[in-house]
Specification:
The protein has about 130 residues and is mainly α. The chain is built from 7 helices and no strands. α3 crosses α7. The radius of gyration is 19 Å and the shape is elongated.
């Protein structure tokens, strides 16, 4: 009986740890090639287009203000980010461009949905306007 209780406790601990580690998302590594990219679009150029593209492609998951609270957010796993935070805004434009372009997990790759690189750079510029 003591062995059964011990196995039950070990099993519960294992299940608990497994559930916890599923909530921890691996760091998103950005290749140096992208990290060091310079945004070719001036921040104030075509701002309305950047906002429109964000609303069309990003808002449903990331939310109107970029808090990660869009209408589809509850159906997704992982951290959707909060674009208003200093931590998010500290990322390079190239890193944001990479994440927007390549995606991972629930974040889709956007090279097919948005084949024009300039459009993705405009979204990066718009994400900058969501700072606190």
């Amino acid at each position: 009986m003591k062995t059964l209780k011990t196995l039950l406790v070990i099993g519960l601990i294992f299940v608990g740890l497994s559930s916890f580690t599923a909530l921890i998302q691996e760091e998103w590594k950005v290749p140096a090639k992208y990290e060091n990219m310079t945004n070719p679009i001036p921040a104030d150029e075509d701002a309305a287009i950047g906002k429109s593209l964000y609303n069309k492609h990003c808002k449903s998951c990331h939310g109107k203000e970029g808090f990660g609270d869009g209408t589809k957010a509850d159906d997704l796993e992982g951290d959707l980010g909060d674009f208003s935070t200093e931590e998010f805004q500290a990322q390079s434009d190239g890193a944001l461009y990479y994440k927007t372009t390549i995606g991972r997990d629930d974040m889709p790759e956007y090279t097919k949905k948005m084949p024009d690189d300039e459009d993705r750079w405009l979204i990066v510029n718009y994400m900058r306007t969501l700072a606190e």
